[in-house]
Amino acid sequence: MSSKPGVLVSSPHPFAVSRPFYRRNLAFSVSFLQLAALAILLAGFVAWTGLDLDAYTPFFATSTKPAYRVQRAEILARCAAIRQSAGPPPDFWGRDKSDRFERGTNGTLIRNAKIFTGENNGTVVIYGDLLLDKGIIRGIGDIPGRVIDSVENLTVIQAHGAWVTPGLVDLHSHIGLVSSPVLSGAIDVDSPHGPIVPWLRSIDALNTHDDAFQLAMAGGVTTVQVLPGSNNAIGGQSFFAKLRKTSDRSASSMIVEPPSSLTGEDDFTGPPRWRHMKQACGENLKGRAGTRMDTMWALRSAYNQARKVMHAQDDYCQLADAGLWDSITGPFPDDLQWEILVDVLRGKVKISNHCYEAVDLDALIRLTNEFKFPIASIHHAAEAWLVPDVLKRAWGSIPTVALFATTYRFKREAYRGSEYAPRVLADAGIHVAMKSDHPVLNSRYLAYEAQQAHYFGLQPHLALASITSTPAIAAGLSHRIGILQKGADADVVLWDSHPLQLGATPVKVWIDGIPQVPIPPKSGKAKPIEIGKGKDAEHWRRAPPVPNWDKEREEALQWEGLPPLKGRSSGGSVMFTNVTRVWTRTLGGPIEEHLSISKDATTVNGTLGESVVVENGKITCIGQTCATTSEEATVVDLKGGTISPGLMSYGSPLGLQEIAGEPSTADGALFDALKGNIPKIMDDSGGLVRAVDALMFETRDALTAYRSGVTLATSSLGPPNYIAGASSHFLSGLSTAFRTGAAHAMEPGAIVQEVVALHVVLGRTHPMMQTTVSVSTQIAGLRRLLHGWESRDKETGYWFRKAAEGVVPLVVEVDSADIMASLLILKTDVEDRIGSRMRMVFSGAAEAHLLARQLSVAGVGVILCPARQYPMVWDQRRILPGPPITNDTALVKLLEEQVVVGLGVRGAWEARHARFDIQWAALESNGRIQERQAYALVTTELEKLLGVREIDGESADLVAVEAGTIFNMSSKIVGVISAQRGVVDYF
To answer: How far apart are CA 416 and CA 580, in angstroms?
Structure first.
């Protein structure tokens, strides 16, 4: 291939009927009469015996015959094979065991389960039993006793009516290619060798030691599509892998239905197995393929090359089928570089296409029609919901759309993505799959994507299908995975609650009928893992009821993904009716409860709760007898909802950028004092800066957070980038606290506190970055600053002296327990030197649980960021993952040692999920974290750790929630009550 971008040159492999063929000279000569006599005798023998000479040409051939002339039967079989459609063999459903069966595996009978089969778009639910044997499902529902009795070494599991689903299928993952922990020698996701590389195969780089395999299985994920990256227009061939460790321990043994191109076992009989390939378009390719125009030309050129090979094959086979062997002048035409693209054109490849914007989707659909091949699924597809009719014009069939639930606005082409997209697409008759793009999102929480899709309107059966049957069907593998049916693979999950309930956790997971969760002990007896405590009530076994989003969905469509988010404000008198709980803030103290009515109780009037009157942003009355003095008062029915304090977000660059991947929408690059000299104009060796100077108001992420009950945010200028490494620097400046719903910095109360805390980042070099300075250098620099060697009349010296004296918190972004231990020693040293008590806080803190007691003794607080840790890099590898892998979580461990803990997020788009993070953390604790304590994690405790002062009843915003509390996925935020501004904002 040419090194010039967008120019494709065919490999020098010859094509049929175009290559001159030269016969070798005969090794001996015979007379014409002898040859004629021999021919007559041979013809008579064939006629007498009825033999098919073509079938026996290898036997009768001499060295004078070219290879293609002595393999006519094989050629005819190959020609027949290229016309066959891909799919399971006709006898698949007659198999009595799986090709993946491991000898010694017991059969398993799951009794009395509520079985979501995945069939018919997820509408089929069976109440009964499930029998697993020899790696397949032997029976489902009402299973005859004779079938059960035929299974040897049967293990019986009593489900007691719990939900059972197929193993979850992640249609988009880079697991094993970007492995956990990420090391520079094991990043194999993209190729640097041009935009078109269909000959590459993800299995050739699949790391079988990825720690993420076990974590994903702990979330019920059993099968993933391992995709090459999206920096190439055609990134290569992908493969579906089961996540369990096999006895073979090889990457090949993990693949579901490996195609003959991988095994080399094709004898051209029976239908071929589906192959899979990754394509991409849009922004990611700009570094390697040029513009969008270059990308589409590269794709068209590649498919044109493949079409030439396909036509040569068709011409060749036409001659062979007609018996015109003398007209064939070469071997069967093929080309190893382009052979999978030929299979694409023959409809034997399931393409997964990375594509975001309408312009790219339109170009892709035109490509399919030009070359007449189908696309199985379009991934990310942030604007697909805006152009469903474009997708319906795809050649062959409508692609499945694989989406994030709420992960948007991280780059320009994701800016118009919407939480309402799954429902809009489903209403348009387009199948939707939810995916992780692991490690962008931790594949372990694939079910959370479906839960969010359901929360924002996707029907429950489609939401569950989106992570089971829908991706399996899109992959052409639904005969094996994604659907529980007799004869399918025994990949099964038993849940502690309905899988669409927030925090739903697998109790047991089987892959190929082999238990994966709980983790089989390597030796001795393992301590039982407690799962699902507190989920005994009947409502846990139902899909949660969700709010009505019809109005918001229509507005989002009307505004092409960018609807106004401000809402409307109203002063004066407001009466909230049917309120069941009221909590408010006290100065520096705990949250105070004013009203608490059981959700099952009713008042004497038969209402769902009591009334709350708000005058000019302040609550003036709570109770049945409350009345407003204004005839023009606004009345809001909360339908059994609540009023409670707003939440705070920390850890992301919320309010400091609009689009993470667009430098023009953010503050810009900071100078790093450990990597280069600070400009003289700063007149400060550290170049310390303030986040307040870069604040941006009314960003979409901030307003979305505001509409989700997050009314306050603290942001610093250098938060670490989760995947690509720390975009920040050793000194990441002074954070600021602001109101997420404010219009601009001059609005009263918009900036809550100009300077909140001093922030530094310590850690080892991220494998996706250029080398940073050593850890020892970082700590040496921090020691010098805290010892006061910088002049106090400069910003750096002044604020580090304040931190050393405990006037402001020193927030250290750190994950490694070893580095934390060094910092605790440094803290003691500084305090002994100047006789102070530092307010040190560790943020990120993936391994903080290993030092829980020492942190408590030292008085060092922790902000777990994110709340559910993932071992992305080496410094984070010793996480405490929680149920169903461990009984404890990092949060529980820290709280048990009385460490002050808060919860944070990494991405600005995640700030809106603070209320769900609270509930999830409490559920994972199995009753060890109570509601009030959980609430404090993103309110009072987080404020205390960061040094946000004087949030009380006069300055704290209150959030009005319809149909529930702020914590659950059945409620909806409908307004914010602002005492400081004297208004109520309605959404």
So the answer is: 36
Q: How many helices (H) and strands (E) does the chain have?
A: 26, 35
Q: Which residue has the tokens 């409620």?
A: 971
- Bigger pLDDT: 780 or 36? 780
Beta strands in 347-477, from DSSP E residues, in sequence order = 349-355, 377-380, 400-403, 432-434
The distance between the two most distant Cα atoms of the chain, rounded to a whole number of Å, is 125
As to burial, measured by CB atoms within 10 angstroms (0-12 exposed, 13-18 middle, 19+ buried), residue 260 is middle
How far is 767 from 185, CA to CA, in rounded Å? Answer: 9
Q: Is the peptide bond between 518 and the residue preceding it cis, with omega within 30 degrees of 0?
A: yes
Dig out the tokens for 79 from the structure. Answer: 């020609």
Residue type, 636: V
Number of Cα atoms under 13 Å in the Cβ half of residue 454: 27
Q: Roughly what angle, to the nearest 10 degrees, separates helices 292-321 and 358-371?
A: 20
The domains found in the chain, sorted by start residue, are: 32-82 (no CATH), 87-260+273-289+334-473+486-554 (3.20.20.140), 563-645+956-987 (2.30.40), 647-955 (3.20.20.140)
Q: What is the pLDDT of residue 426?
A: 98
Instruction: Give residue-wise pLDDT tens across range 452-484.
Output: 999 999 999 999 999 999 999 999 999 999 999
Q: How do beta strands 751-753 and 736-739 pair?
A: antiparallel
Distance, CA of 899 to CA of 922 (rounded, Å): 16
Query: Which pLDDT belongs to residue 16?
Result: 37
Q: Are 808 and 758 in contact (CB under 8 A)?
A: yes
d(CA 653, CA 717): 7
Spell out where 762-868 has E strands: 810-814, 840-844, 861-864
Query: Cα 592–597–600 angle (5° rounding)?
Result: 150
Q: Is the peptide bond before 866 cis (omega within 30 degrees of 0)?
A: yes
**Strand order across the beta sheet in which 736-739 lies:** 647-650, 710-715, 736-739, 751-753
Is the distance from CB of 373 to CB of 344 less than 8 angstroms?
Answer: yes
CB-CB contact of 212 with 175 (8 Å):
yes
List, in order, residues 6 or more apart from 151 with CB less than 8 Å away. 107, 109, 131, 133, 138
Beta bridge partners of 737: 714, 753
Which one has a higher pLDDT value, 69 or 187? 187
Percentage above 70 pLDDT, the chain: 90
pTM, to two decimals: 0.92
Query: Chain-centre distance of CA 568, in angstroms?
Result: 34
The amino acid occupying position 682 is M
Q: Which two tokens stand for residue 495?
A: 């849940």
Amino acid letter, 624? Q
DSSP SS3 for 227: coil
Instruction: Say if residues 659 and 410 touch (Cβ distance below 8 Å).
Output: yes
Nearest to 169 by CA among 407, 428, 489, 414: 489
DSSP letters of 444-465? GGHHHHHHHHHHTT--HHHHHH
Q: Which string of b and e fits 310-338 if b means at least 16 CB within 10 Å?
A: bebbebbbebbeeeeeeebbbbbbbbebb
| Cα end-to-end distance, the chain, whole Å | 56
Name the token pair of 779: 């700590």
Tokens of 796: 């750096």
Counting every residue written for the chain, the total comes to 987
Partners of 643 in the beta sheet?
Answer: 582, 960
What is the distance, to the nearest Å, from the Cα of residue 433 to the centroid of all Cα atoms in its chain?
12
Q: Which residue is associated with the tokens 């918001």?
A: 552
Helices (H), 385-445: 388-391, 421-427
Backbone angles phi, psi at 534, to 5 degrees: 90, 5
Nearest Cα to 176, choosing from 268, 93, 239? Answer: 239
Provide DSSP, 297-347.
Answer: HHHHHHHHHHHHHHHHHHHHHHHHHTT-GGG--SSPP--TTTHHHHHHHTT
CA–CA separation, 874 and 987 (whole Å): 43
